[in-house]
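Hello Y.,

Per our agreement to keep a running log of every chain we model this quarter, I'm adding this entry. I've kept the format consistent with earlier entries: sequence first, then predicted structure.
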Amino acid sequence: MEFLADNALWIMLVILVTTTIAGMPLAISMITSSIFYLMLAGRDVGLAAENVLNGVFGNFVALAVPLFIFAANIMNAGKVSDRLLTFALAVVGRMPGGLAQVNIMTSLIFSGMSGSAISDAAGVGKVITGMMMKDGRYPRGFAGAMTATSSVVGPIFPPSIPMVFYALISSTSVGALFLGGVVPALLVCIVLAIAVMIMAKIRGFPVEEAIPWRSFPMVFIRAFPALLMPVILLGGIYSGAFTPTEAAAVSAFYALLLASFAYRVLGPREFYGVVLSTVKTTAIVTLILCGAFIFNYIITVERVPQAVFGIFDSMDLSVIGFLLLLNVLYLLMGCVLDVSTILLVVTPLFIPTASALGIDLHHLGIVLVFNMMIGLITPPYGILLFIIKALTGIPVAEMIRETWIFLAILIVILLVLTFVPALSLWLPRVAGML
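Predicted structure for the entry above:
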């Protein structure tokens, strides 16, 4: 028994890895392996329940997650994407690679409502991908890769569910993280738009028939209520009118009013579907959070972060060296692990080291979230690629062939964000949040 107690941490990790590989959901794996640790280490198993209660129900910030999920589901069910697509088509459709430009713009707009890359790809992304493939206008692999890449903007531009999770584990400001993601998200969209223009000329992508400017006022009016949602969200946080959690409630309520009364597309049956989907997703997210809180308690008790700091300290790395090494590690993990695992299990190990090196944890959060979003389109895992395949039937292999150029662009932007913290911290500082 003494052997088991001395090696309880390693046994826990073996159980976690084994059960996850065997197909057990990550949340259940974390909870199960953590309870085994408490039993083997001779600790009170009730600590598991205590950490869950204190972490989930004692944290006001966590309430933002189901509210943002609810708002995104309403927007998807309410056919808001049709109006956003028409608006984007009127604005950028006449540019080279018009529909690809529309893809980028609608992802940016929708990201201001959902906070989730998967919601973006499954909602407006599915529609625009179909438009791009119609009549062979774009190669289907390119259409799928473009949708997956543009969806990455979702969790970078506020609101962002991954940033809420990061705030929970790092004790940073959700509002500062949200504002810190604005400039990086805009930078991604601008660089992708320029890349698409160049690719359109080289590959001869079609130019869309321009919507007459005289029709633009009506198109804008139809889309205006939906376009107002990110403005309300950011304006409320920026002005101090409400907290990020209150902003989530306002977003959900506004989305409900918009779909039910302004657009009149959300009836009782659709509303029931939205609530059911939100409850299911929230239950999954809450279970993951529960497992993470227990797991993080254990690694704290075992002083794992201090051991990690000791390893990096012995390497005598500079701040830039540490960030570059961390980026490489996260890019590699993104190839084989999902975002939840990296964010909630791995990230807490490095936060104390980053803090000790004097790295601003808000800057670190933006860089790591951006890095993890790249993992969503990185083979072989690339969950967004598989989601788009399920929605459109585009073979993953065809999308992977078209994804490499976009991956290179995103990695270059990641390095820029790493070396220039001001890109992430300027807006929060102007807003007085840092």
